[in-house]
Amino acid sequence: MKNWKSSLLGMALLGLSAGSFAAPQELDRVVTIVNNNVILQSDVNSMLKTVRMNAAGQNQPLPSDTVLKDQIMEKLIIETLQLQQADQFGIRIDDTRLDQAIAQLAAERQMSIPQLQQELASFGISYPEFREQMRRDLTASEARTIQVRRRINILPQEVDTLAEQLSQHEQQGTRYNISHIQLRLEEGASAAERDQVAKAAQDLVNQLKSGADFANLAYSYSKGPKALQGGAWGWMRKEEMPTIFADQIDSQGNGAIIGPFRSGVGYHILKVNQVEGLETVSVTEVNARHILVKTSVILSDDAAKKQLMEARRAIMAGERNFADVAQSMSADPGSAVNGGDLGWQTPDVYVPEFKDKVENLPKGNISEPFKTVHGWHIVEVLDRRNVDRTDAAVKNRAYRILFSRKFNEEAQAWLQELRAGAFIEKPEYANDQG
């Protein structure tokens, strides 16, 4: 699609030049004007070749040429409107991104780039022509995405509702191997007694999350019906469980600790030992602490590194305490007040160099000084644990589904509004085109 003024000028010059040749040459005609741009007959012909190639590759029959050209014209009008929006936003697709998109397309068609070029040539499509059409497609898509995203609003309640529906659907036929601890609450217990039992239940949960053996705690403290079996209820589907259990189990994975939660007889703690028939998501979290020294005009890289080397030596020799050094020396105010403790985090939240250290450093070891964009560090890994993230994964999937639904709806509405507000005209001579 070209600017119509420059295109018409170009055609006029072509017309003047054509008079000097013995044989007349066919001019590229304007078939539609879209705001300040035009769609040429060559654009229609090029798109027609691409559609025929794609249909042949999928063994897809095509409608008559009349119907097909109408559909192509509508697509070109919509594409032109989106490209005009992209021009307003300053969107440009560089050659690197374009090459990546073409390579991905070739891979999806199980072809190499030379094979793709051969297929294009067999349908009369030049490779430069194809590249520019791909560039237009990517540019239009990015403009559409930017505009439509602004129109989408997804409420947390929508995500929660859909996530619950997905979980219920996925849990049909799912079996859970569970264990249970019950702390009894006597009828007529006072507020102080209720608080005491609740505190005891929470203390047991903290012990379990720190690695305590569930069965041992059940033998020692549980007043539930399976106490003498270490709290083990074995394999059950949700519909076979006591309702109070089923209401608490959602999409937790292996090893999940649930509770404490209260019923009429007391406080309960559940452990999901194993799950069958449910796809679970588990991540590794690392509890680490660090000391950061930032370089400055008066503190060079070498000096910062030497400071940390001396601090590391003193800590390892038992002369100083890691937490004390962090509080007095670390330039990270958020962790320094906690003795350098960064808490439980997935390594992905850190910059690459720091992520590599906390992933690979043995527990209890203090690293050699290393540099990141933040400065120089030493880090110690205190502990690692696997954490179930199935519930979060289900919510993420629910969000993506909702976004996709709303994006498609809003994209259609936006395109209709764009077309309704555009100046679109078909020159009279275009009606005579073949």
From TrEMBL:
Subcellular location: Periplasm
Top EC class for this record: isomerase
One Gene Ontology cellular component: outer membrane-bounded periplasmic space
Keyword Cytoplasm: no
Example of a GO biological process term: protein folding
PROSITE patterns: PPIC_PPIASE_1, PPIC_PPIASE_2
TM spans (from-to): none
Region forming the signal peptide: 1-22
This protein's record includes keyword Isomerase: yes
HAMAP family: Chaperone_SurA
PANTHER family: CHAPERONE SURA
Protein name, UniProt field: Chaperone SurA
Organism the protein comes from: Photobacterium ganghwense
Gene from which this protein is expressed: surA
